[in-house]
C-alpha cells in the first residue's frame, strides 16, 4: 500500500498543520547530571540500571539539583516520541499536542518551559496533591542510573482534563494518535475515549506495548484497547511477553507480528500494522497479511552512547512521516534514522536539525 494513512489510490500529500499529532502519557522532567560514586552509594544505585523511586530516594531529586550541574529535558516515553516527531518535522511548530498530569511546583514550571522549547503544544493537567514526575539520570563514566518518580503522572483525570471542551477540541484536530502502554496503568478510560474517537472517524490510533509487565499485569486493560489499535509498536522482549499472555505458542517475532495483526479490530477500513524492533537486528513489520523486514542503520558499537531513548526515538521518527501521510517504507526509514541519532547521545536529546532525506 503506497499510502499508509488511507486505503485509497490517490495518495496526495496533505500539508501538516499544528495539532495534527496527539500524544497522551506520563510526563516526566528528566534531570541529568554527572554524579560521583558516593552519590550512587548513598542511594544504593547500580551504575547502569532503571528503577522506580522508593521512599529512600525521596531526597535524591532535590539533592542532585543542589549538588551537581544538571540539565533538564521534557521526558516520559510518549512525550519523548512527540518531541522527536516535532524535531523531525521542524515546521510548523506545535504539530504535536501532548496531554499528561504534573504538579503545581518548580519542576512543573521547568517542564512547561522545556516542552515549549521543544515546540510541542503541551497542555498539562495541573494538580497539587502530588509533585511533578521526575526521572533522575545519574551519569558515571559510560553508565547511566535512571530513577523515576512518577508522582503526578499517575494522577491524570479524564473528567478534569480530557473531557473539557477546549481540550477535547485539540483531540479532534488530530489525525494521528499515539499513547505508550505505560498510560494503561493510569487512565484506561482516557485511552478508550481517544481510541474510540480515532476509530469512529477513520483516523490512526497507535499504541506501544512499552514493557513486558504491561503485557503481563495490565493484560485486561491492553486487550480492551487492542480492537482500536491501527499501529502497534513493541520490541522483541515485549512481543515475547505479549505472545505468551495471548497464548500464541511461538517466540518467533515474525509469527508474533502476524498473529497480533490478525487480532479483532473495530475499524475494518484499515488493516492493523504491527511494528516490532529487535535492537541492532532487523525491524519486523506485519501489514496487509504480509510480513516484511527492514535492516536497521549500521553503527559502530563504540559510537553508541546510550540506548535508553532508542525506542521512543524510533516511534517519534515513524510518527513524523505517518502524520505527513508518507508510505510505510518511509516511516520505517525515518524511525531507524531517529533511533540512530539518539543512541549516539546521552538521554533523549538531538542536534538542532535532522539530516534526514
Automatic annotation (TrEMBL):
Subcellular localization, as worded in the UniProt entry:
Nucleus
Q: Which reaction does it catalyse?
A: adenosine + ATP = AMP + ADP + H(+)
Which InterPro entries has this protein been placed in?
Adenokinase, Carboh/pur_kinase_PfkB_CS, PfkB_dom, Ribokinase-like
Which enzyme class, named as a word?
transferase
GO terms classed as biological process: adenosine salvage; AMP salvage; purine nucleobase metabolic process
Q: How is the cofactor bound?
A: Binds 3 Mg(2+) ions per subunit.
UniProt xrefs under SUPFAM superfamilies: Ribokinase-like
* Recorded superkingdom: Eukaryota
Function statement? ATP dependent phosphorylation of adenosine and other related nucleoside analogs to monophosphate derivatives.
Subunit (UniProt): Monomer.
Q: What is this protein called?
A: Adenosine kinase
Amino acid at each position: 500500500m503506497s499510502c499508509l494513512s488511507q486505503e485509497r489510490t490517490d495518495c496526495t500529500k496533505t500539508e501538516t498543520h499544528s495539532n495534527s499529532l496527539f500524544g497522551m502519557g506520563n510526563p516526566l522532567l528528566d534531570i541529568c547530571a554527572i554524579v560521583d560514586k558516593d552519590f550512587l552509594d548513598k542511594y544504593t544505585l547500580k551504575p547502569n540500571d532503571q528503577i522506580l523511586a522508593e521512599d529512600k530516594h525521596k531526597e535524591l531529586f532535590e539533592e542532585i539539583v543542589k549538588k551537581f550541574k544538571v540539565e533538564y529535558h521534557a521526558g516520559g516515553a510518549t512525550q519523548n516520541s512527540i518531541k522527536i516527531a516535532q524535531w523531525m518535522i521542524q515546521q510548523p511548530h506545535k504539530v504535536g499536542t501532548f496531554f499528561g498530569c504534573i504538579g503545581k511546583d518548580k519542576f512543573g514550571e521547568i517542564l512547561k518551559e522545556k516542552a515549549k522549547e521543544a515546540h510541542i503544544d503541551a497542555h498539562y493537567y495541573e494538580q497539587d496533591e502530588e509533585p511533578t514526575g521526575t526521572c533522575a539520570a545519574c551519569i558515571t563514566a559510560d553508565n547511566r542510573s535512571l530513577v523515576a518518580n512518577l508522582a503526578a503522572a499517575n494522577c491524570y483525570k479524564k473528567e478534569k482534563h480530557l473531557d473539557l471542551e477546549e481540550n477535547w477540541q485539540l483531540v479532534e484536530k488530530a489525525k494521528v494518535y499515539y499513547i505508550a502502554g505505560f498510560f494503561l496503568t493510569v487512565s484506561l478510560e482516557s485511552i478508550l475515549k481517544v481510541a474510540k474517537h480515532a476509530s469512529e472517524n477513520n483516523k490512526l490510533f497507535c499504541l506501544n506495548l512499552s514493557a513486558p509487565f504491561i503485557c503481563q499485569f495490565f493484560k485486561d486493560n491492553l486487550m480492551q484497547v487492542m480492537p482500536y489499535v491501527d499501529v502497534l509498536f513493541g520490541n522483541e522482549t515485549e512481543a515475547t511477553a505479549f505472545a505468551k499472555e495471548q497464548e500464541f505458542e511461538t517466540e518467533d517475532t515474525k509469527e508474533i507480528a502476524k498473529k497480533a495483526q490478525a487480532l479483532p479490530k473495530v475499524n475494518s477500513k484499515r488493516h492493523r500494522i504491527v511494528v516490532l524492533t529487535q535492537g541492532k537486528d532487523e525491524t519486523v513489520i506485519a501489514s496487509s497479511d504480509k510480513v516484511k523486514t527492514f535492516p536497521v542503520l549500521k553503527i559502530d558499537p563504540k559510537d553508541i552512547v546510550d540506548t535508553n531513548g532508542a525506542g521512543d526515538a524510533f516511534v517519534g521518527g515513524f510518527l513524523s512521516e505517518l502524520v505527513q501521510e508518507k508510505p510505510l517504507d518511509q516511516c520505517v526509514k525515518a524511525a531507524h534514522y531517529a533511533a540512530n541519532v539518539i543512541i549516539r547521545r546521552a538521554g533523549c536529546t538531538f542536534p538542532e536539525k535532522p539530516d534526514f532525506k
